[in-house]
Every structure is written in C-alpha cells, then in structure tokens.
C-alpha cells in the first residue's frame, strides 16, 4: 500500500515522501497515529499544493529577510556607554542592547539572531553579524562611544 508521510519517520523517509508499506502497518499504525495518509489521487494533489504553498511562503520570507539585510548594511548604530579610566566599559554591550538599539530604528530582531561571540567590553567600531533567516545573514556597524 502506498502512503504519503506526514511526519519524518526514521526508517521510512521524510515528510511528504510517498512510500510503499504493508497494508496492516499503514491501517493499524501509520494512518491512525497521524504519521501518514493513504496515497490517493486527491491526497497526492493536496500534497503537491501544500508543497507549492510552502515554497511560495519560504521565498517570500527570504525576500523580506534580504530587504532587512540590505537595510542593516546601510545602518550605523551608536551606543553610548559609561567608561572607566582605562577606556573600559562599566559592564558590557550584549545582544540585548543591540536588539534594543535596532528596535529604536524600527527593526525587530531577537537576541538569538545577534551572532555576538562575546560581550563588547571596550570602546570602538564593531561589525556584528546578524542571522536574519537561516539562509540570510548580514552585518550591522555598531559604534561604542563614551557617554
């Protein structure tokens, strides 16, 4: 019996794949548990339509991420921080500070998207990488200056 996998199955394949299995395995386990559905003509058409919609949605997300990346490349953010005698910061600049500064510029990101290897502890100019989308990365220029 042919079935369309709804979820990834370790020994059968990835979601969306059409696989042949024993009729009893399909009727007693895969279909009732929601792991697969029978591969009828209508279900195959539905699978193709869902695949097409997913592709369109993914392309739209990538386009929007590229627009944000283009905006970030042009952007330069200044963070004013308190410093001590040797030009070292009291505390540090972390991903949350960068997210907050970007929010003030109208760009909404999460801390996880800021790829800051370690907190910034000195004054200077930094190019911080940002993962906007799994397939799109950009950098933003951060100026850390004294208050």
Task: Provide the CATH top-level class of the largest domain.
Answer: Alpha Beta
Overall structural class, as computed from helix and strand content, comes to alpha+beta
The fraction of residues assigned to DSSP E strands is 25-35%
Which stretches are low in confidence, meaning pLDDT under 50 for 5 or more residues running? none
Superfamily (CATH H level) name of the largest domain: Ribosomal protein L9, C-terminal domain
Largest sheet properties? 3 strands, antiparallel
Radius of gyration: 24 Å
CATH architecture of the largest domain: Roll
Per DSSP, the total helix count is: 3
Tally of individual domains:
2
Task: List how many beta strands DSSP finds.
Answer: 8
The coarse silhouette is elongated
What is the share of helical residues?
25-40%
Rounded average pLDDT: 92
Could you characterize the architecture of this molecule?
The structure is a single chain. The chain is α+β, with helices and mostly antiparallel strands. The chain folds into two domains: 2-62, Ribosomal protein L9, N-terminal domain (Ribosomal Protein L9, domain 1, 3-Layer(aba) Sandwich), CATH 3.40.5.10; 64-146, Ribosomal Protein L9, domain 2 (Roll), CATH 3.10.430. It has three helices and eight strands. It has helices at residues 23-33, 41-74, 95-104; strands at 2-5, 18-20, 36-38, 76-81, 88-93, 120-122, 124-133, 136-146. The strands form three sheets. The protein has a three-stranded antiparallel β-sheet, with helices on both faces. The chain has a three-stranded mixed β-sheet with strand order 4-8-7. A two-stranded antiparallel sheet has the order 5-6. The longest helix is centred in the middle third of the chain and has 34 residues, at 41-74. The mean pLDDT is 92.
């Amino acid at each position: 019996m042919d079935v369309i996998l709804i979820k990834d199955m370790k020994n059968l394949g990835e979601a969306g794949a059409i696989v042949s299995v024993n009729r009893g395995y399909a009727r007693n386990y895969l279909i009732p548990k929601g792991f697969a559905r029978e591969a009828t003509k209508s279900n195959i058409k539905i699978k193709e339509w869902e695949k097409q919609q997913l592709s369109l949605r993914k392309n739209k997300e990538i386009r929007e991420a590229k627009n944000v990346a283009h905006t970030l490349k042009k952007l330069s953010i200044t963070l004013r921080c308190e410093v001590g005698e040797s030009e070292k910061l009291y505390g540090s600049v972390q991903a949350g500070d960068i997210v907050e500064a970007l929010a003030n510029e109208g760009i909404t990101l999460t801390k996880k998207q800021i790829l800051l290897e370690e907190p910034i502890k000195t004054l200077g100019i930094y190019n911080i990488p940002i993962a906007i989308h799994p397939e799109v990365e950009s950098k933003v220029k951060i100026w850390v200056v004294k208050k």
